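worker-03 picked up job from queue 'complexes'. Input manifest follows; two sequence lines, order preserved.
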Amino acid sequence: MNGNDGILLDVRGLRASIEGKEILKGIDLQVRPGEVHAIMGPNGSGKSTLSEVLAGDPAFTVTAGQVSFHGIDLLALSPEDRSHEGLFLSFQYPVEIPGVSMVNFMRAAINAKRKYFGEPALSAADFLKLMRRKREVVELDNKLASRSVNEGFSGGEKKRNEIFQMAVLEPRLSILDETDSGLDIDALRVVAGGVNKLKTESNATIVITHYQRLLDYIKPDFVHVLYKGRIVRTGGPELALELEERGYDWIKNEIDGKEGQQQ
Amino acid sequence: MGCSAKQYTDIYDANQALLSGDRSAARQALASAELDDAFAADYGLNLNRVALPVNVADSFRCGVPTVSTAMALVVNDTFAPTARLDERLPQGVRFMSLGDAMRECPQLVTPHLHVADGDPLTQLNDLLVQDGVFIYIPRGVRLQRPLQLVNIFSAPIDLMAVRRVVIVVEEGAEGKLLVCDHTQDRSRRYLGLQLVQISLADGAAFQLHDIEESSPLTTRRYSLRCRLAAHSSLRLSVSTLSGGDTANDIRIDLDGDGAEAVVNGMAITDGTQRASNATTVCHHGEHTHSDQLFKYVADGESHGEFRGSIVVDESARFTEAYQTNRNILASDTARMHTEPTLEIYCDEVKCSHGAATGQLDPQALFYMRTRGIPEDTARHMLMEAFMADVIDSIGIEGLRERMRMLVERRFSGIADARCADCGASTTTCVSSTLDKNYD
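worker-03 finished. Artifact:
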């Protein structure tokens, strides 16, 4: 299955733009099963764009590069097929969808995946059982399940709902976009607790965050710094601590300085 | 554009013996009137009441024996009660042929019959109508069971049907009516000229939910007129689920103090379908309240139109009147025309109106797709969700669920297949769903 040395996600030279403006300017990133990667960086460096491009947001145009996901050409797939193949994006701002109930939403999602793999739709009873079991994982309030998707949910409830969906879909790779989302301490625990509970040796997580705080709860194996659409530095957990202490300016200066010399 | 009413006045002149009563006012008014192009085509009119070979039972295989709505049919333009209809109605309540009512109880019908609003379509109805439906709910009677009326077009020839429904709800009485428009033989062209007149006395409450599920070859010209006395209330919804060329013209007069009306509608159009709703809500009494919500989803090369107006008289102090029109264009070639107007002749009022036409929320669409929901399914789910508040306004338990399903099926593009599982029309399924809730 994993044709390329057990690499789950292999991003090479990825460039992407929106409305003619290039945001990602050549991303290289390798993620193996069982790993947790943190992507950090100053505002506007392209962190959320990276997650959206990987998930297949049609608003962006990929202009160069390849992405291999357990050996499959990820960029050739529709967002829904990327999901079926095991990619999950936890949104920074989960979208409210008035009029679409959580139940219908999840049923459509699960049955689409089953259909993709040639399995019959889940019976009503089995579906409800599955929902109950997964709700317990993230301690999602039962009454949220009967409401419209994210409508009127608090910030913490929205995050809990994202992790609930992740628990249901059992992705191989989860990308958690927590950039600047100002998670309060409870929401932080929910996200972190869910991720840690769902972690196995065969799946992997990319956490996108601006602050080190979240990484107190989710221990990364690798920390990458994204700046101006490129990964400019990669290190271990200690890099996050250094950023927490020193901010991003020193990295910016280093990179901008190099660019200046080149010009 | 338009065509002269002459071919219809000629028909009247040649068949006066078949058309009872004094119709001279309509005849005179139509002498110089223009009708829209839909009336230029040549349809048969069954003035001689020839029994057309119609197999109504065919389309009602699964519903009728156990329905718990009190149901009647209008086949083309002729009233047809279901078995034991009268037994299902409380004492004094009438749900009967309009023609029969004119003969048997003219004193109940005649005071509510005259429209005189200068509209050629109501005049044409006046000129040619022969039958239809009369509903009467006496003072203080609260109907528990909803009434259901199924209009069916079924004829071996292209046919025009002139239908009229007269509804009288007396003081403090209450009732609910579900109406479905339906086409049986879908290979023929039909033109339905319908006029619904509602009179609500003091403190009366009435709900009317009209659902059109016609064939693409059907033209519908529908006029609804409702007068509301003091503290009476009307809840109306008009839903175009399928059809060819639909124009609904709704006029509500809030005559009495404290009267209130909710007037909602939806249209789901595709192909070359046309759906138009025109509303005029007139506030005459004090402390009157009206609320309008119309939503359209237009796909293909279809054309939607909403012309909504609120008129507040000088006398109508403390009026509250609201109107909202929201539309989604699901294709590049669909068109929507919207024209909201307010005419306010009184200072002490609260009024608002708003109209917006757009596309499905791309963020919601992307969010759903990242969860594995295919784009098509996601689009349908969002369109259904868009209609949710119109459906939720339906005050007949069971019908709301049924409408959700009909709308879902419509968006999935299988409505045309009509209940492939049981071979019955979707209309009957409405009644069988209602069963569960009322038996």
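worker-03 released lock.
Chain B has one domain: 3-438.
Residues 59-67, 415-439 of chain B have pLDDT under 50 and may be disordered.
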